[in-house]
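Q: I have 93 residues here and want to know how they pack in 3D. Can you give me a structure?
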Amino acid sequence: MIFVGIFGLKDSEEKLREVDFECTGCLSEKVQLFALRRVFEIFFIPIITLKKKYIIACNSCNSVYKLKDEKMEQVLLKGKVRYEDVEKILKQS
């Protein structure tokens, strides 16, 4: 968290759920879905979300993939991520 005077930026990570996805690193079928946010705060009160992205992280090999924002509703409903839903690989083990 970065604070200057009475306002600042806070990064947060929220675990949403476990989803199905075949990891390209270890071929494991279960990954965790996370929402990453950067929030502007005044006196520790969140005012506005500046940046939000969704990632999946493999439970076995810790590979990390960034998901396309427009695919999130479908991913949350079905609990399954397809390769087309991945925007880019952030880390692969």
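Q: Anything worth noting?
A: The longest helix spans residues 72-78. The mean pLDDT is 91.
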